């Protein structure tokens, strides 16, 4: 039995990146032999075992033969005579098909080190197209390594386009689609993920709602001469430098689209297309997006016009807005909406104006939160009267701020 370190651990070490998880491949063994050594088998589909001490994953070397549709349509062979080279051949990218033995020697039959040096994302073999999940994975890798100037080579791009047209993507479960998307949104350059999927045609299949919004944005070229798709993705790129929170990044993608469509007065025949909120709801419902992530996206997009005109609102309207977004119980929403607004500001040319809107939102909410409810209770207010008095005092303190601002 021989054991090799494989996959991301080898790749990241060669790139001088932190190694997070270690995966191992075992050559010349059997499930019975692994169990006899104290390993614990996990999963039913693949011969994967957990080490008795480190709990790291050890997988028997295997080959895969396409036998059905989707990413589960494979016949697995994991007999002891499967070689290391055969196991590495089934992997997605050459940079993920490098193995290292216990002495630190590298085994690289598919020139992964060359592609690491040249910053290439290249498929190992034509068997790449057997697994539709790889379209999403490669888009995610492109986002993960964009800061290192990695690019998808032309032949792999063409293969991804062919896969997007084949119908295989339809067999991916919504859970796997969202899982890859969630990971991509947390990379340094999440916009690259959506750009890659758009370019290879997968966006229309996997995210038809988002693709519809992008189609609306594409028409902006005719009306105002800007590449609005790139512009909206740049907003996502900007927010990634401001926040690593998943809900903020997800919400910014849709907020940026809403902002762009609000700039243009479309002809009447286009009005029916402009339903960002409905498309977003469909997107979230279909992919089972967690409620806390969905809610921020919906709230921030729905209140886009309010944020846009925030500095012209009365004290009553401002407090009513905070009531509407449940800010008193969930104050982080104000901070996050301000961040989303700021990301748009940094992307747009009128950044000074929108920056002031984000800061204004933070300032007003901070002032409104200074009213101590204990004083109201001590003053003898009870029941609903407490809430009414709290609202009155919040309006008053904000009103005083607005008055002093106007005088200045």
UniProtKB/TrEMBL annotation:
Obligatory cofactor(s): Mg(2+)
RNA-binding among the record's keywords? yes
Provide the catalytic activity annotation. Answer: a tRNA precursor + 2 CTP + ATP = a tRNA with a 3' CCA end + 3 diphosphate; a tRNA with a 3' CCA end + 2 CTP + ATP = a tRNA with a 3' CCACCA end + 3 diphosphate
Binding residues annotated for ATP, in chain numbering: 8, 11, 91, 137, 140
Sites where the protein binds CTP: 8, 11, 91, 137, 140
Where does this protein hold Mg(2+)? 21, 23
Top-rank taxon, per record: Bacteria
Matching InterPro entries: CCA_bact (IPR012006), NT_sf (IPR043519), PolA_pol_head_dom (IPR002646), PolyA_RNA-bd (IPR032828), tRNA_CCA-adding_enzyme (IPR050124)
Q: Which Gene Ontology biological process is one annotated for this entry?
A: tRNA 3'-terminal CCA addition
Query: SUPFAM superfamilies in the record, alphabetically?
Result: Nucleotidyltransferase (SSF81301), Poly A polymerase C-terminal region-like (SSF81891)
Alphabetic keyword roster: ATP-binding, Magnesium, Metal-binding, Nucleotide-binding, Nucleotidyltransferase, RNA repair, RNA-binding, Transferase, tRNA processing
Q: Its Gene Ontology molecular function terms?
A: ATP binding; CCA tRNA nucleotidyltransferase activity; CCACCA tRNA nucleotidyltransferase activity; magnesium ion binding; tRNA binding
Q: What is its EC number?
A: 2.7.7.72
Stated family: Belongs to the tRNA nucleotidyltransferase/poly(A) polymerase family. Bacterial CCA-adding enzyme type 2 subfamily.
Q: What does this protein do?
A: Catalyzes the addition and repair of the essential 3'-terminal CCA sequence in tRNAs without using a nucleic acid template. Adds these three nucleotides in the order of C, C, and A to the tRNA nucleotide-73, using CTP and ATP as substrates and producing inorganic pyrophosphate. tRNA 3'-terminal CCA addition is required both for tRNA processing and repair. Also involved in tRNA surveillance by mediating tandem CCA addition to generate a CCACCA at the 3' terminus of unstable tRNAs. While stable tRNAs receive only 3'-terminal CCA, unstable tRNAs are marked with CCACCA and rapidly degraded.
Share any extra remarks.
Answer: A single active site specifically recognizes both ATP and CTP and is responsible for their addition.
Q: Which PANTHER family match?
A: MULTIFUNCTIONAL CCA PROTEIN
Q: What is this protein called?
A: CCA-adding enzyme
**Gene behind the chain:** cca
């Amino acid at each position: 039995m021989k054991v090799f370190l494989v996959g991301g651990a080898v790749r990241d070490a060669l790139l001088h990146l932190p190694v997070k998880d270690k995966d191992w491949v075992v050559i010349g063994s059997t499930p019975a032999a692994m169990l006899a050594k104290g390993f614990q088998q996990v999963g039913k589909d693949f011969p994967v075992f957990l080490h008795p001490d480190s709990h790291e994953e050890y997988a028997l070397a295997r080959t895969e033969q396409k036998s059905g549709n989707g990413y589960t349509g494979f016949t697995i062979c994991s007999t002891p005579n499967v070689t290391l080279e055969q196991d590495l051949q089934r992997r997605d990218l050459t940079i993920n098909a490098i193995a290292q033995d216990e002495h630190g020697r590298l085994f690289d039959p598919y020139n992964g080190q060359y592609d690491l040096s040249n910053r290439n994302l290249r498929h190992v073999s034509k068997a790449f197209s057997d697994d539709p999940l790889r379209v999403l994975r490669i888009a995610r890798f492109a986002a993960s390594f964009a800061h290192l100037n990695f690019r998808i080579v032309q032949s792999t791009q063409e293969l991804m386009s062919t896969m997007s047209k084949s119908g295989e993507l339809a067999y991916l479960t919504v859970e796997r689609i969202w899982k890859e998307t969630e990971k991509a949104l947390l990379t340094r350059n999440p916009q690259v993920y959506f750009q890659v999927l758009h370019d290879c045609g997968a966006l229309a299949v996997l995210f038809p709602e988002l693709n519809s919004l992008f189609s609306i944005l594409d028409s902006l070229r005719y009306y105002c001469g800007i590449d609005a798709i790139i512009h909206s993705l740049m907003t996502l790129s900007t927010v990634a430098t401001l926040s690593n929170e998943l809900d903020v990044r997800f919400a910014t993608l849709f907020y940026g689209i809403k902002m762009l469509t609000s700039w243009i007065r479309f002809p009447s025949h286009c009005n029916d297309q402009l339903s960002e909120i409905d498309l977003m709801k469909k997107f979230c419902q279909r992919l089972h997006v967690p409620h806390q992530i969905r809610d921020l996206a919906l709230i921030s997009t729905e209140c886009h016009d309010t944020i846009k005109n925030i500095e012209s609102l009365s004290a009553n309207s401002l407090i009513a807005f905070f009531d509407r977004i449940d800010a008193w119980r969930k104050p982080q929403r104000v901070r996050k909406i301000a961040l989303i607004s700021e990301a748009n500001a940094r992307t747009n040319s009128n950044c000074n104006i929108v920056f002031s809107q984000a800061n204004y939102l933070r300032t007003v909410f901070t002032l409104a939160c200074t009213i101590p409810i204990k004083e109201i209770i001590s003053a003898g207010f009870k029941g609903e009267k407490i809430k009414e008095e709290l609202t009155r005092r919040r309006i008053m303190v904000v009103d005083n701020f607005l008055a002093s601002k106007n005088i200045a």
